[in-house]
Design a protein that fits this description.
The protein is an all-alpha fold. It has helices spanning 3-14, 19-42, 51-93, 106-141, 149-178.
Amino acid sequence: MSHKIKKDLKRKRNSNQSDNDIGNNFNNDNNEKESAYNNNTATISWDKISDEDKQSICLLIIQLRSIVTDLCAYALIWQATMKGIQYILERYDSIEGNEHTTDLEPDILVLNGLYIALISKLMNTYVSFTRYNIVTNKLAQGTYKYSSLPNYYINVANILNLLVSYYRIEATKILVARDTSQPIYGV
């Protein structure tokens, strides 16, 4: 309990208030302090933040959006995998000689998921190259004390991720052109 709250309690007791009133006022004081804390953290003025930190926050927000985009992409790929399993099981469930009862097209879902994943990879690449430029500029000015090598490796990894995404999309497009009613493995 803070010193100010203890003083307030002592003053209220000395003024002949009942214990219930003191307890209620203590809770109100606490709620006011919590409310003030929440208000202070929720209303940080954008003007008080340095330009460098503003840029860092913007990059991290893009990175968060990239993560959400990637999750959506993998949700589609997960759904396509489930439909692929369903498609295979329907072979044994349908009457001999009949076609599948549903038009599942799991490979179309995979292709859409891969396109969305590519967008996520592009967002990450933008973030990493922007951060690399910031670091190299700071190094040139002598205001950065670390190596830029990790940022360079992250850029290389992001370029490789883009290449991987390209080949996954190309392979899936070939499979879709061949037959849209088949599961796609390994993406």
